[in-house]
Amino acid sequence: MAEAHQAVAFQFTVTPDGIDLQLSREVLKHIYLSGVTSWKKRAIRFKNGVLTGVYPASPSSWLIVVIAIMSTMYARIDPSRGMIDRIKTSLPYLESVRPLLDDEQYKQMETVANDFKKDPAPKFQKHLKLKSWWATNYVSDWWEEYIYLRGRDPIMVNSNFYTMDLLYVIPTHRQAARAGNVVHAMLQYRRKLERGELTPLRALGIVPMCSFQYERMFNTTRIPGIETDFVQHLKDRKHLVVYHRGRFFKVWLYYGGRHLWPSELELQFQRILDDKSEPQPGELKLPSLTAGNRVPWARARLKYFTEGINQASLEAIETAAFFLTLDDEAHGYDPENIRSLDLYAKSLLHGKCYDRWFDKSFTLIVYKNGKIGVNTEHSWADSPIIGHMWEYVLATDCFQLGYTAEGHCKGDINKSLATPTRLQWDIPKACQEIIESSYMIAKGIANDVDFHGCLFNEFGKGLIKKCRTSPDAFIQLALQLAHYRDKGEFCLTYESSMTRMFREGRTETVRSCTCESTAFVRAMEDESTTNEQRLALFKKAADKHQNMYRLAMTGAGIDRHLFCLYIVSKVMGIDSPFLKQVLSEPWRLSTSQTPQQQLNLIDIQKFPKYVGAGGGFGPVADDGYGVSYIIVGENLITFHISSKFSSPETDSFRFGQNIRQAMLDIRALFNLKEKM
To answer: Model's pTM, two decimal places?
Structure first.
């Protein structure tokens, strides 16, 4: 997903304080700090577990776990199934790049890789193994720090991602009312989250997945720094900050010890919409500081926002439960306008570059026609996490809270509530110049985003399953075929897979461009190949993809392992030509599937119009495509395609048409086979 952009762009500098040939002190320092953080989290979890009970475990299950661990130690069985020691026997990386290299290039890469395998890989591996024993997760803390928080480029478009509203339905066209219901539903979700009342998701309905990422969904902000940012997470916050037409308002979420009712929230938001006051000097584009480069923002924050009213107002934003924008535009899907989803996506991804606070864990956007969406900062969590909350909110909004016949929130109106408070600013000219500079940088990035939303409704998951094929593998092979037709070549392809079956796991990469997939694509373009041969190659490629996805989910992927080896090499000050080349390879096709029906709160068979539109992310490579897709029910697949206008090689609309045709061409193979 968006992390693919950061994965080839991150840079950092470490000066080793002496290098031991056996164990580097600098690496040990990094490992120690990772472990300290992990053990602090474990202590907190243990305390909470004692107080609230441990789900899904029970005291009787602890003995089973102890026996299992002791058994593996006695029998010398590796419970990681060889994940950490893979490098000793093979380099699956070579297999992943074989279809992209000619014989000479591959031979050269093979030599470099085998040299790395002999030395210095064992040195790096020793440190990683030590970290795997000491820290909760040997990848995730470094992934968050080096891929996200140390990045100095703008996070708008490059890192943040978006999620759309229901595709076909707008439950009310009253902006304040929609905001009232949705904010109240979010507060309900937060309360369930804090009380531990949300049932953990289970892989295949059996294995519970780690819920760590949910902990920082609310009350969280990314704080800019000169060299690195950090994530500030606070306990229960009782207010949110609203942005409307260049003004900031603080809105209290509690009254008399309870959440405000939807009708009360609607009243507060309507008061903001009715406020005719003008922005203060520098206030209109102030959020663009979070959209531009990180260092100017960090310096401006230290110089202009650490005292007086500026400090108080910024603190109100950064400590808010989340950020809300009451947008003055109207967006959403319009079947009469083929570009409506494109404009909707661009608005959610970057807006006007100054009307979302891109550092907040998420910004809720409510448009003047009642449509909504979310822009999410990526460092704290991945898209399935915000998607889980979003499913709850949409279902609660439409099927539990509801609206009156006039489109207002249900319930009485308490007019005695104190009105929302305007945040005050004293922004000098010098700071206003920095704000304008950040805005111009962000505007340049936003204007270069070429987006296309493609609704594929010729068939969906239902028909694909009749072909006895994984829907994800089917779509990934269609993307390979579409890309080859679009550019006439294959490219390194990134598909995001979750690793939440491991504690604090985040993602792993599935390298979707394989020898099997390229053989299938070439067969599709070769007129001398029969449909029976093409179908056989398709099934072989699909099986390969499914197996790679399973390996990635179960910790047997290669990219996070290589990433951590690279971190160790940098900290030790040992240059590795192999790792440098691996980590600099661009992902010209970055893909991700948006999960749906994680909670199953809406029966889409009974209410087919109440389906989500999914979400997406910005282009990853200057000359590549970003593709997010959501499989909606049995008969719809939505694609969100991004690229850059500045690249003469890409065109998001054209690529969408290529995807559509590739999907139809693959289906035709099965149709022809069935007729014979």
So the answer is: 0.89
C-alpha–C-alpha distance, residues 262 and 257, integer Å: 15
Residue 613, classed as helix, strand or coil, is coil
Q: How far apart are CA 355 and CA 450, in angstroms?
A: 20
pLDDT, tens only, 97-110 = 999 999 999 999 99
**pLDDT one-digit tens code per residue, 103-160:** 999 999 999 999 999 999 999 999 999 999 989 999 999 999 999 999 999 999 999 9
CA atoms of 48 and 30, how far apart (whole Å): 27
Give dist(CA 84, CA 281) in Å, integer. Answer: 56
Q: Residue 561 catalytic? A: no
pLDDT recorded at residue 72: 47
477 membership: H or E segment, kind and range: helix 471-487
Single out the catalytic residue among 378, 408, 483, 640: 378
CA-to-CA dists, residue 335 to 177, 418, 664, angstroms: 25, 42, 21
Asked if 112 and 581 touch (Cβ cutoff 8 Å), the reply is: yes
Is residue 155 a contact partner of residue 378, using CB atoms and an 8 Å limit?
Answer: yes
Cα dihedral 31/33/38/40 (nearest 10): 150
CA distance 602 to 559: 36
Measuring CA to CA, how many Å separate 377 from each of 159, 160, 446, 610?
A: 7, 5, 16, 26
DSSP string for 23-50: S-HHHHHHHHHHHHHHHHHHHHHHHHHH
Q: Residue 42: which pLDDT band, with cuts at 50, 70 and 90?
A: low
Q: Any idea what DSSP says for residue 143?
A: I
State how far the Cα of 669 lies from the Cα of 520, in Å rounded to an integer. Answer: 12
473, 546 in Cβ contact below 8 A?
yes
